[in-house]
Amino acid sequence: MTSCAAPRSQTKPGTSMRRGACPSLATPMQTGDGLLVRLRPATDGLTPAELRALADAAAACGSGIIEVTARGNLQVRGLTAASVPALAAAIGEAGIAVATGIVIETPPLAGFDPNEIADPRPLAVALRAAIAGRRPALALAPKLSIVIDGCGRFHLRDSSADLRVEAQNSDDGFRWLLSLGGTARSERTVALLETERVVPAVMEILAGLDSLGAAARGRDLDADRIRKRLSADIGAFPTIERGALPFLPAGIHDFGDGRIVLGMALAFAQTHSASLIAFLHHAEELGATEIRLAPRHGLLVLGLSREAAAVAQRLALSHGFLVAADDPRNHIATCAGLACASALMDTKAVAGLLLDVGAGLLDGSLAVHLSGCPKGCARPTASALTLVGAPSGYALVVNGAASVAPSAYTDEDGIKAALAGLNALVRKNKDAGESARSCLTRLGAARIAAAFEQG
Questions:
Q1: How would you label 269-301 residue by residue, b for 16+ Cβ within 10 Å and e otherwise?
Q2: In the sheet that 29-31 helps form, which strands lie side by side, from edge to edge?
Q3: Where is this region: Disordered (predicted)?
Q4: Which end of the chain has fewer CB within 10 Å, C or N?
Q5: Averaged pLDDT in 10-residue chunks for the chain of 455 residues
Q6: Is the pTM of this model over 0.70?
Q7: Which domain holds residue 111?
Q8: Same domain (yes/no): 155, 211
């Protein structure tokens, strides 16, 4: 059992309350339930033993609550200034390397997925080395991120990024499409590059961001100017068709040649260390060799046979994990709720109410966003239905983000009836074969607001 006694050689960590910063072992963030630390493993994945050691340390040094974020990072909650150094020591003793510096993301199955056009990992390694060796060092926004995507079955096209590098087939092999800002559906393309030109081009763009100041993001760059600088000698790049489905981790995925991946996710982004440890013991006994963190709160288990994956899937479900794409919990996005000092809603409890009375809303056509406050951390973009904690109860935003002016309100006593009212609205008005999203769109915001307030 890991001890949470702080090593004497360690100093008390500084804490960060700045929302633009990312919590880490060096700068944990103060939240409503103590300090929070976010970890990005530096390796492709963790062994079951390594992840068990981390979960054990989370229980010994914190509340035992473990989260996997929407971007696939791991978070440990309920820490104290005295226990963070012990967590860091336990991670070191387990041999887990933690990534630092600028966030460079590759798909969770990079190098494993036979559907990818190219393995993005060598580019990521080269770019990290170039950034680390740059003098003077770059001063960039704390949340700046770079996506390098090989465009396999498990892609990152729904993950926003300041810079995106995406493999594209060409007549003579493949090239890399370089874009600024947004998701793959909203970015501004600036160059189509051979592999050897990618790192110099990205470094040039990062230097431009550095010159704009430490708050500058990809959206602040002049795409036309960069396009002219980088693309003049290779001609125009093609218009790319982006039809890939959103990545959803849950399920048993067969990549051929006996390569099976068990995909699972954390319900409402959280699990307790005891549940994770128990599952990992079983999974390792069944042959699991590696666990990879994945976007949308996912864990991908490698090394299992198809038969063993089916057994492990049932075990994961018994421990509360999401294991199937049709689980309605996949379609509820929640923040930490009352574990955050800013929250005015117990998002996990309201999610339970929604599961009880709102099955008609959870057909997979839309995501219901439950946000403890207007910051909307769990889902910054617009949702068909967003419920926001308010001083007087609960505010409903229709077709908007948590920060948008709400369409309707209800109080603490009326929330279950309000959710049931939305469900009844869809049930009574949905045409045969129509989705919940389509039905709500057709009915309009005024009828949705009335159903919510009248319950």
A1: bbbbbebbbbbbebbbebbbebbbbbbbbbbbb
A2: 29-31, 34-39, 74-79, 65-68, 270-272
A3: 1-25
A4: N
A5: 56 45 86 93 96 97 95 95 96 95 95 95 97 95 94 89 94 91 73 95 96 93 89 52 60 94 95 98 98 95 98 98 93 91 93 96 94 91 94 94 95 96 97 96 96 93
A6: yes
A7: 103-230
A8: yes
